[in-house]
Design goal:
The complex is a heterodimer. Chain A is built from 14 helices and no strands. Chain A is mostly helical. Chain A folds into two domains: 71 residues; 241 residues, Orthogonal Bundle (MetI-like fold), CATH 1.10.3720.10. In chain B, helix 2 crosses helix 15. Classes of the chains: A mainly alpha, B alpha/beta. Chains A and B meet through helix 1 and helix 13 of A and helix 1, helix 12, helix 18 and helix 19 of B.
C-alpha cells in the first residue's frame, strides 16, 4: 500500500484522489446521517456535532496560527531564542520601516476617503437618471478584475515608454510647446505612493458606489418629497437629506475599504515589489518572512497589522449592526 | 426531514469532486529513467558496481529543456549500473526543499544552487558529509576554494556541479571593428574606451538593466562584487562577504563609487533605453538587446546571458566572429583577471551505496563530459577534468577557460553567500534605489550595513 503515500504516475494519483474523495464523503455523510436522527440524540450532542468541525477549523486554521505568530514575533529570525521586543523596536525606529509605516498610513487614510467620496458623489449623481444602470456597470467593472490584473494594467499606464499617462504627459507638454520625455512615474518619490493608491481607489470606488447607491434608494420617499416641497436645492438635498440618512452605510463602507487597504499587498507587490520607498506593512511582512527568512520580524509586522486592524473591525461591526437596526 | 441525509450526501459529493478537480493539477516534472537499449561502453562505470533494483531520487531547480539535458546526462549511469535515477525539477525548489526535509521526505540528492541554502540545510542535521570518493574527486578536479564553498564549518558536504562566470562584457565584434575600437585590457582602458565612445557620437557606450520582478536589483549586486574584487582585492572581498569588515567600509565605498563613474553618468548610460533611472526599470533579460540595433556598445552580463540572445532570435550567432561576443571584464592591470561566478552543489540526504555511487559519479569528469555532450549551450563547470572540446558553444568554452585558469582570481557571488536579509534583501533594494532614487553611495552602503542581521 506504499502507493497511497507515494503515488507515481497519473493512474495511481487518480486512484488516490478517488479514495480521498470517497473517504471525505463517507465521513461527512456518516456525520450528517448520525446527526439528522434527532430522536436518538440529545440536542446538545447534535449541536456539538455541527459546531465541532467549524470550531476545529477556526481553532487550528486561525486561532492557533495567530497565537504562534504572536509568540514568534518575540523570537529571533529562526525562532530559536526569545528577543523580547527587539523586532517591534526595529519596526518603530529603523528608517526603512518608518517609511513602510508612513506609506501604510497614507493608504489607510487616502484609499477609503477617496474611494468612498468618489463612490458617494457618483451614486448621488446618477441616482434615478436614465443611464443609471450603464453608469453603475462602468464604475463597478474594475471590481471584477483581480488586484494583480488591475496592477498589471496600471503598470502599463505608468510605463514611461508606452504608457497612457506618459503619452498624455508628453502630448500635453507638446501642446504648450515643450519637448519632454516622460519621467519614471513609479520611481518618483513620494508621488509614486499616490500612483499606487489610485489603482486601489479605481478598484474600490465601484464597491463604495454600489453599496451607497443601494442605501440612497432605501431613503424613504416621503422625506425626499418633503424636502422637495420645501424647495431645497440639489446641494441642500445631498448635504442635509441624503448624507445624514445614509451615514451608517457610509461609515461601514469607509471601514471596509480601510481594512482592504490595510491589507494592500497585491498592488504594491506587482507594481513596485516594495522598491522605491513604496512598501507597506502587508508587503514588508511577506518580504521579511519569505524573502529575507526573518520569521521573527515578519511575525512582528503581521502582529502590527493585526493590532491596527482590530479597532477598525470593531467599529465596522458596530456600525453594521446599527445600520441594520435602522432598517 | 427524512430525505435530508441523501441530498446532503449528494451535495457533499459534488462539492468534494469539484474541489478535487480544482486542486488536482498534473505534475509533469517527475519522470523516471529506466535502463534501455543496447549495452553501452561501460568501462568507466564498472567501479560503481551493480546497482540493479535500486533507485536514487534527485531534486533540483532545472525544468523543461534544461531538466531533460540533466536527465540525459544521467542516462548512461543508469544503463551501466542498473540504478534508476528518478529526477524531479521544480521552480519552487528553494522554498520546497526545506519543507520536504522538515517533513522527513528529503530527496536522496538535492542540487542546491547557493552555498547559503546548503548551510541552512546542513543546520537541519540531515545532510550527509561527502563520502571519501567524492572528496577525492573534488581534490583532484576542483580548486580548494570550490571545495570550501561546498563545506560548512570546516566539514565538506557538497561537491560542486555546474558553474557560471559572471564577469563578462558583451559587445558586437562588427561594431567594434567598424569604429576601430580595441578590446580593453585594463579597467583604465575600459574607462578610456567608454569616454571615447561617448565623445564619438550620439550612441551612448553602455546599456544596463536590473529589473527582475521581485528580485529586482540582483544584476547590480554582480556589478558591485566585480568592482569590490578589483578595487579592494580578494582578501578584502572575503572579509566583506563574511562581514569581518563593515559593509560600508571605505574600500567598498571606493569600489561602488568607481561603478558609479559608468552607471550613474547620463553620458554613458542607458543607451537606447533612457537615463540613469531607466536602469532600475529595464528588465535585465532585455537590457543587452540595444547592442543588436547598434544603440550601445557594451553590456556587462554573465556567461549565461548567451541564452537571452538566442531566446530573442535563434539566428543570432554568439561567437568571436558572430553577432555578439563577450570579453572578460578587465582587471586593474593587464595581467590580473578577477572573476565573480556562481555554481550549484550536490547535497546528499542518504548514504545508501547507490546514492554514494551516484554522488561520486556526479563529481567525476565522466559526468561533466556527459553533461557537456548533452547540452547545446549554456552550461559549464569548474571541473578541470572536463574535455572542453565537448562544449558546443564558444561562450561556454570561454567561460570554462576562465573558470579553469589557475591564474584567474575566482570569487563566489557574494550576495549568494551573505545572509538572505542582505544578499536577497537590502543589497538588491538599496542598489535599486541607487539608480531609481539617486541615493548617494554612502547612504546605500550605510543602509545595507544597518540591515545586516545582528543575531
Amino acid at each position: 500500500m506504499d502507493f497511497l503515500l507515494h503515488p507515481s504516475g497519473a493512474g495511481q494519483k487518480l486512484l488516490v484522489m478517488l479514495i480521498a474523495i470517497a473517504l471525505f464523503v463517507a465521513v461527512v455523510g456518516l456525520l450528517l446521517t448520525l446527526l439528522s436522527a434527532p430522536k436518538r440524540l440529545p440536542r446538545w450532542l447534535a449541536a456539538l456535532g455541527f459546531l465541532a468541525p467549524v470550531l476545529a477549523a477556526v481553532g487550528f486554521g486561525l486561532v492557533w496560527p495567530a497565537l504562534v505568530t504572536v509568540a514568534n514575533s518575540f523570537k529571533n529570525k529562526n525562532g530559536t531564542e526569545f528577543v523580547g521586543f527587539a523586532n517591534y523596536i526595529r519596526i518603530v525606529t529603523e528608517p526603512q520601516f518608518l517609511i513602510v509605516l508612513r506609506n501604510t498610513v497614507l493608504w489607510v487614510v487616502l484609499v477609503p476617503v477617496l474611494a468612498t467620496g468618489i463612490g458617494l458623489l457618483y451614486a448621488a449623481l446618477i441616482d434615478r437618471t436614465r443611464f443609471e444602470k450603464l453608469a453603475k456597470t462602468l464604475l463597478f467593472m474594475p471590481m471584477a478584475i483581480s488586484m494583480v490584473g488591475a496592477s498589471i494594467i496600471w503598470k502599463f499606464v505608468y510605463d514611461n515608454k508606452v504608457g497612457l499617462m506618459s503619452e498624455a504627459y508628453v502630448g500635453l507638454a507638446h501642446l504648450v510647446g515643450q519637448t519632454v520625455s516622460a519621467p519614471q512615474w513609479l520611481m518618483n518619490v513620494p508621488w509614486n505612493n499616490i500612483f499606487l493608491i489610485v489603482v486601489m481607489v479605481w478598484i474600490q470606488a465601484g464597491f463604495a458606489m454600489t453599496v451607497l447607491a443601494a442605501a440612497i434608494k432605501a431613503i424613504p420617499e416621503d422625506i425626499v418629497e418633503a424636502g422637495r416641497v420645501d424647495g431645497v436645492t440639489s446641494w441642500q438635498m445631498f448635504a442635509h437629506v441624503t448624507v445624514p440618512m445614509i451615514r451608517p452605510t457610509i461609515v461601514v463602507v469607509l471601514t471596509t475599504v480601510a481594512m482592504t487597504s490595510l491589507k494592500a499587498f497585491d498592488v504594491v507587490r506587482t507594481m513596485t515589489g516594495g522598491n522605491y520607498d513604496t512598501s507597506v506593512v502587508a508587503n514588508e511582512f511577506y518580504t521579511q518572512s519569505f524573502s529575507n527568512q526573518n520569521k521573527g520580524l515578519g511575525a512582528a509586522l503581521a502582529v502590527v497589522l493585526f493590532v491596527v486592524i482590530i479597532p477598525v473591525i470593531v467599529f465596522n461591526v458596530r456600525q453594521l449592526k446599527r445600520s441594520e437596526d435602522v432598517r | 426531514m427524512t430525505h435530508r441525509p441523501r441530498s446532503a450526501l449528494g451535495l457533499v459529493a459534488t462539492l468534494a469532486l469539484a474541489a478535487s478537480l480544482g486542486a488536482c493539477s498534473p505534475s509533469p516534472d517527475d519522470t523516471s529513467l529506466t535502463p534501455a537499449g543496447p549495452p553501452p561502453d561501460c568501462a568507466a562505470y564498472t567501479a560503481y558496481g551493480d546497482l540493479s533494483g535500486t533507485t536514487v531520487t534527485v531534486y533540483a531547480t532545472f525544468i523543461d529543456t534544461e531538466g531533460a539535458e540533466y536527465e540525459s546526462s544521467f542516462a548512461k549511469f543508469g544503463e551501466c549500473t542498473g540504478a534508476v535515477i528518478a529526477y524531479e525539477g521544480s521552480r519552487d525548489f528553494e522554498a520546497q526543499l526545506p519543507v520536504r526535509v522538515e517533513a522527513g521526505a528529503a530527496p536522496d540528492i538535492a542540487i542546491v544552487p547557493q552555498p547559503g541554502l546548503l548551510a541552512t540545510m546542513v543546520e537541519t542535521g540531515k545532510v550527509r558529509p561527502a563520502p571519501a570518493a567524492v572528496s577525492k574527486n573534488v581534490d583532484t578536479y576542483w580548486s580548494a576554494s570550490w571545495k570550501a564553498y561546498g563545506s560548512v564549518d570546516g566539514v565538506f558536504y557538497a561537491a560542486p556541479l555546474g558553474a557560471s562566470a559572471k564577469s563578462f562584457v558583451w559587445y558586437s565584434p562588427a561594431m567594434f571593428e567598424a569604429a576601430g575600437y580595441e578590446i580593453p585590457a585594463t579597467w583604465a582602458e575600459l574607462l578610456a574606451l567608454t569616454e571615447q565612445i561617448s565623445q564619438a557620437g550620439d550612441v551612448k557606450p553602455w546599456c544596463a538593466g536590473i529589473e527582475s520582478g521581485t528580485a529586482t536589483g540582483w544584476p547590480a549586486t554582480d556589478w558591485v562584487e566585480d568592482m569590490v574584487l578589483r578595487f579592494a582585492g580578494g582578501p578584502t572581498y572575503d572579509k566583506w562577504v563574511s562581514h569581518d569588515i563593515a559593509f560600508n567600509d571605505p574600500a567598498i565605498l571606493e569600489a561602488l563609487t568607481e561603478m558609479g563613474k559608468i552607471l550613474r553618468n547620463d553620458a554613458y548610460v542607458n543607451a537606447g533605453i533612457g537615463d540613469v533611472q531607466s536602469i532600475a526599470a529595464e528588465a535585465w533579460t532585455d537590457a543587452g538587446y540595444p547592442i543588436l540595433d547598434g544603440q550601445c556598445y557594451l553590456h556587462r552580463a554573465a556567461s549565461f546571458y548567451q541564452t537571452n540572445w538566442t531566446t530573442l532570435d535563434p539566428s543570432i550567432k554568439v561567437g568571436p566572429e558572430g553577432d555578439v561576443w563577450a570579453f572578460p571584464l578587465p582587471g586593474l592591470t593587464a595581467d590580473s583577471q578577477p572573476v565573480v561566478g556562481g555554481g550549484d552543489f550536490v547535497a546528499a540526504f542518504a548514504d545508501r551505496p547507490e546514492v554514494v555511487a551516484f554522488q561520486t559519479f556526479l563529481s567525476s569528469p565522466e559526468w561533466a563530459n556527459a553533461k557537456a555532450a548533452a547540452t547545446p549551450q549554456g552550461w559549464v563547470t569548474a571541473n578541470s577534468g572536463l574535455d572542453s572540446s565537448l562544449l558546443a558553444s564558444p561562450m561556454d568554452q570561454l567561460a570554462f577557460q576562465v573558470l579553469s585558469d589557475p591564474g584567474v582570481e575566482f570569487r563566489f557571488d557574494g550576495s549568494d553567500l551573505m545572509p538572505s536579509e542582505v544578499g536577497a534583501g537590502s543589497f538588491w533594494r538599496e542598489l535599486t534605489d541607487y539608480f531609481a532614487l539617486g541615493k548617494s553611495e554612502q547612504a546605500v552602503l550605510d543602509a545595507i550595513e544597518a540591515s545586516w542581521p545582528k543575531n
